From TrEMBL:
UniProt keyword annotation of ATP-binding present: yes
InterPro entries with a match to the protein in the record: ATP-dep_AA_Ligase, ATP-grasp, ATP_grasp_subdomain_1
Full protein name: ATP-grasp domain-containing protein
Signal peptide: none
Record Gene3D superfamilies: 3.40.50.20, ATP-grasp fold, A domain
Amino acid sequence: MKAFYLAESGVEMISTYIFINRLRYDRLRYDYARDKTASRLVAAFDQEFFDRVPVEAAARLDRVSCLEPFNHQTLSQLIAEEVALAGSPDRIKLICWEEDALLLCGRIRREFNIPGPTEIDLSVYRNKIDMKKKLMEAGIRVPRFVTAEMLASTNSPKKLMSQIAAYVGFPLIVKPIDGMGALETYKICDQTALLAFIEDHRDELLSWNFEEFIQGNIFHCDTFFHEGEPVFVGVGKHVGSPLAYVNGQTRCTIVVEPESDEWHQIKAFNEKVLESPAVSQL
């Protein structure tokens, strides 16, 4: 472990940046972003990606930890050790890129009084129903959607199937309310397939979102926040789709030509989303 300034030394305490992810290190390379001022960099991985951290990256980081299993208990232990070293949770910056770990990191912030959004603040980014409702309140078009909880007939699979079909139409998309990356996402094209899905998932129906399938091109708009203000990066266009990718097909994204019609349309839509209360109040 590299040298760490102690409170009684008279040297200003340093900030500790803790990076939580189960992604390939080389997709992020955050050790290159080290603050020129004194700082401590800590990275936490699960076993798979811990084994793939390059030696040179581990040498630049102050601590590389393997959390096995990667859960609340193991992460809490690491955070407790780092808070003790830092002398105060105010000197901890907990950074998470992985969507699946956002709520876990939010909970950790709340429990250790670390500055930043809690799991309550972040729920709108993980719960797709809350997310759509917030966007609808801001006047932003979202796919028609429904959940079993929103309907009154969850004890009758056939009646539930009929209600979903009448409200959403076919084809429709079924995915977990807190899903990511098109995992466990299905395209259902008729009543027979919908009824089969409902019967197969009878014990967990409240966990699923049924929504309108929208045909068309898929875009993404990259933005980050600096000192509370959004900074636009660029617009990308998918070749293939996330759903096709999880079903074994090729997918990639290409950069949309700046100042083109598509570029302006997606950028304007992105700005409208960022101005909505769901984002601007975070």
